[in-house]
Write a structure and sequence with these properties.
It catalyses: octanoyl-[ACP] + L-lysyl-[protein] = N(6)-octanoyl-L-lysyl-[protein] + holo-[ACP] + H(+). By secondary structure, the chain is an alpha/beta fold. Helices cover 23% and strands 28% of the residues.
């Protein structure tokens, strides 16, 4: 008797540059839909944000090096875990909306899977991404190049990861990124010249599909990768 393995499908939505609040509301809507109907496909949102700072639900305001009431900088406290981080163009952001009941109901497993996707993406370019014990994210030669912060409700995920491909890192100078004062933030472009978000996006899609064992499909189109 031959058992057939059904590969789970995951829609992919490549959105370009999207204001943070728009993507945030979209995630909430997608999660709400899946809480009502668990048969809906998973979806991976890939995008970039205009400059914005976000703080996790328990993040300390002390990690901001400015008074948000005194400067014209966009800041949001959101429901993910983790401390403060910065988003801007040149950073590839991924928001997987997954039903972990179809994978593994284990948040530590899920975080390690996201790290593995990013580590494998770096390996495509001959870069050795690393984990740091007791922390979440991916480091490259001592610099944090990818941050991860998630929210899971009844095993439906939201928020996700941010990979610094070729951003202007100056915005990180205004915070203590992820609450880690002794480890600098870096980008892939510091190691590989002329690297684009579009190029990395394609490699990330392939690795996401491989690590999570899914078939990625463009919304409204045929098989993507």
């Amino acid at each position: 008797m031959v058992l057939l393995t059904i590969v789970r499908k995951c829609l992919i939505s490549d959105q370009g540059l999207v204001p943070y609040t728009v993507a945030w509301e979209q995630q909430r809507s997608l999660v709400s839909q899946r809480l009502q109907d668990s048969s809906l496909d998973d979806i991976l949102l890939l995008l970039e944000h205009p400059p914005v700072y976000t703080l996790g639900k328990g993040s300390s305001i002390d990690f901001l090096k400015f008074d948000p009431n005194q400067v014209n900088l966009e800041v949001h406290r959101i429901e993910r875990g983790g401390e403060v981080t910065y988003h801007c163009p040149g950073q590839l952001v991924g928001y997987p909306i997954l039903n972990l009941r179809y994978y593994r109901q284990d948040l530590h497993w899920y975080l390690r899977q996201l790290e593995e996707v990013l580590i494998q993406v770096l390996a495509v370019y001959g870069l050795k991404g690393e984990r740091v014990a007791g922390m979440t994210g991916v480091w490259l030669e001592g610099c944090k190049v990818a941050a991860i912060g998630i929210k899971v409700k009844r095993w439906i995920t939201m928020h996700g990861f941010a990979l610094n491909v070729c951003p202007d890192l100056a915005g990180f100078n205004h915070i203590v990124p992820c609450g880690i004062a002794d480890k600098p933030v870096g980008s892939l472009a510091q190691f590989i010249a002329d690297l684009s978000v579009e190029q990395v996006r394609l490699d990330l899609c392939a690795k996401f599909a491989e690590v999570f064992g899914v078939q990625l499909i463009n919304q409204g189109e045929r098989e993507f990768c």
